[in-house]
Amino acid sequence: MLELKNLTHCYGEKTVIEGLSHCFPSSGTLLFSGPSGAGKTTLLRLIAGLEKPTAGEITSDHRRVAMCFQEPRLLPWLTCLDNIKLVLAGRSDADTLARLWLSRMELEEVENALPTTLSGGMQQRIALARALAFGGDLLLLDEPFSGLDEALKHRIAPFLREANPTGLTVAVTHQKEDAALLDATVLTLSGSPVTALV
Prior knowledge:
This protein is of the alpha/beta class. It has six helices and nine strands, in the order βββαββαααβαβαββ. The chain has helices spanning 40-48, 80-85, 94-104, 120-134, 150-162, 178-182; strands at 2-11, 14-24, 28-33, 55-60, 65-68, 138-142, 168-172, 185-190, 196-197. The strands form two sheets. The chain has a six-stranded mixed sheet, with helices on both faces. Helix 3 packs across helix 4. The longest helix is centred in the middle third of the chain and has 15 residues, at 120-134. The model has no long low-confidence stretch (mean pLDDT 95).
């Protein structure tokens, strides 16, 4: 269960979200749509608990939350494989699982490379692999296809669709056509500031 109750969020004098209430389904994939600056990433960060609302509340019973940010946020001193293994600490199958996700992102050949030697699109796929390997019952994806060409998006989209079969996935994208790739229900941020999801 994830519910927003009279949510308001401000950056200084600027109100981005005002009095927003919404109850999300317990499972499935949702995609936030809206123009740049509409508050999509802010809403995602609020749901993740990375920012506190100015007013209102967010109620969630999700136990494990995985998030892939717009920027990859990889540790530059660790190899690509080790960046993924960070979220698998203590698991006996960490190596196997990390390599599985590298393979799904078509990056097996860079497992021992440092992130700084890779293109932005490749770094984004490593970050995706890390979030999906972590798993959880709430998966938050901020521009997950950033830097990827159309063919590659179509090849890796099934893994995103299948990664969280019983939980809730919420994605943010500027490209409405990505909704079809993710088999997602589109929620458009309405108002400026945002007052509804429609």
